[in-house]
Design brief:
globular, 14 helices, mainly alpha, 75% helix, single chain
Length: 336
């Protein structure tokens, strides 16, 4: 890789991280001072009350929470095992084991995305499937445990968004090998799931949500790290694509994937009705303590937020397409 290109990538990554830090800081400040505002009333609710009302900690089933905590520990152990195998596979006999090459590619792709392409050379068919199935299953399991297997709405929105983003990215990659970008993005998803599982594994979903909403500093730190890890998923994906399509097209591919993953679920929510979806979400979480009112009422989000999100996603798709189209004619490695 040319020095200029590498410096450009580093500058882009630095700018992305700086942007995430700024957004995370603003978000954390807002969340720290957030107060629930029932219609027509003054903001008089403190952080502790928010924690109880939003998570239902006072009414949560302790038995279910304990079971979810143990499930989270099991999933976390599997995720950490996958990461450890990836870290040490090349230095031990593990490299000959089925799936070890996939774990190594996932680890290298998520921590050193510029090496994602070399790490995926010569992968067996099983390893290629594992690059998709392990992050996908871990994401599904993490979100299911986080909501105590109660909210199909949450799972549908999250998983549909990620699936759309992956499918769009795969389509844009075309005849080139998709495995470097899948290894980088999938590995980064694993890292983010590990972070999400830690508080749930300690005390269960209800206890974790209550702690996050009643401790401003903890909420600030958790939101900031989660935001950084989310952005790193896409930065790693773009970085892994640079060797195949160049930095401009790689950025366009990832922006288009993000836009599609945001726009389509938001569009469906907008068509169904934001308040309807919010009420279904609240009702499904009722055994966990639930939400006394739909989230759009509690946090005073306008019902049109789904349409705004869909519009923002559409804009990202257009910007991504503009950046990606010139790079489509450039040479790249073929599928392997």
């Amino acid at each position: 890789m040319a020095m200029v290109t590498r410096r450009g990538i580093l500058a882009g990554v630095a700018a992305a991280v700086a942007g995430v830090l700024a957004v995370g800081l603003v978000t954390a400040v807002v969340l720290t001072t957030l107060q629930v505002l029932p219609a027509g009333e003054s903001p008089v609710v403190d952080d502790t009350t928010i924690g109880v009302q939003l998570t239902g900690a006072a009414d949560a089933d302790p038995g279910r929470d304990a079971v979810m905590a143990w499930l989270a520990r099991g999933i976390l152990l599997l995720a950490l095992t996958w990461g450890v195998i990836g870290m040490f596979a090349a230095r031990t006999r593990l490299v000959r084991r089925p799936g070890a090459a996939a774990a190594r590619a996932s680890w290298l792709g998520s921590t050193r995305p510029w090496r994602a392409r070399e790490s995926t050379l010569g992968l067996l068919q099983l390893d290629k499937w594992l690059l998709i199935l392990v992050p996908g299953a871990l994401l599904l399991g993490t979100r299911a445990v986080q909501t105590s297997f109660l909210s199909w709405v949450h799972l549908a929105v999250v998983m549909s968004g990620w699936c759309v983003a992956v499918l769009v990215l795969r389509a844009l990659v075309g005849a080139r090998s998709p495995w470097p970008v899948l290894a980088a993005a999938g590995g980064a998803v694993v890292l983010r799931c590990v972070w999400t599982l830690i508080p749930v594994a300690i005390g269960g979903p209800a206890a974790a949500w209550s702690a996050l909403w009643t401790e401003p500093v903890l909420r600030w730190f958790s939101a900031l790290v989660a935001a950084v890890l989310l952005v790193w998923v896409f930065v790693a994906a773009a970085w892994a694509l640079v060797m195949q399509v160049g930095p401009k097209a790689a950025t366009g591919f990832v922006l288009a994937a993000i836009g599609a993953g945001l726009a389509l679920p938001a569009l469906v929510i907008g068509i169904v009705g934001g308040e309807t979806v919010a009420e279904a979400w609240a009702a499904s979480l009722a055994p966990l303590g639930g939400l006394a009112d739909p989230p759009f009422v509690w946090l005073e989000f306008p019902v049109a937020s789904a349409w705004w999100a869909a519009t923002a996603g559409g804009v990202l798709c257009v910007v991504g397409a503009v950046l990606a189209i010139p790079g489509r004619g450039a040479g790249g490695s073929t599928a392997e």
